[in-house]
Amino acid sequence: MWDCKPDGVVSLKGVAISGFRMVRVPRVWDDPQRREAEGSANVEIGRLARTFKGTLDEWTQSVSELATWIRYSPPPLGAKPIEPWFEDQSEDDDDGGPETIQ
Q1: Cβ neighbours around 44 below 10 Å, total
Q2: In the predicted structure, residue 96 carries a pLDDT above the cut 70
Q3: What is the pLDDT of residue 58?
Q4: Which of 1, 76, 97, 99 could pair with 8 in a Cys bridge, judged by C-beta atoms 3.0 to 4.6 Å apart?
């Protein structure tokens, strides 16, 4: 969900992700032969975990690229800066000390 103000400020207000994957969980049987035949869910749970990790890594990379694009894209004409633009900050302003607000 995006929020765009008249002065050109765009902010991300929320993200919704939906998905579904069924994992078969074996039943626990009293009979040892049935328990052995039922098998384990380790392979399916491992596959689910790998899929989740891969998808999360891709999403994290995409958000990082979006943040870089937003940070370094030029502002729209007439936009009022909340803070100095990256290019407007001179190197001699940095005295190496912590920033303070008085």
Answers
A1: 16
A2: no
A3: 94
A4: 76
24, 84, 94 from 33: Cα distances, Å:
19, 72, 73
Query: Measured in whole angstroms, how far is the alpha carbon of residue 95 from the centre of its chain?
Result: 34
| Block residue for tokens 């990379």 | 61
- Give CA–CA dist 57/77, Å, rounded: 35
Which residue shows structure tokens 């040892």?
Answer: 32
Please, which residues have CB within 8 angstroms of residue 3's CB and are 6 or more apart in sequence? 10, 11, 12, 13
The amino acid at 14: G
Cα atoms in the 13 Å half-sphere on the side-chain side of 41: 10
CB contact at 8 A, 71 and 86: yes
Q: What is the pTM of this model?
A: 0.51
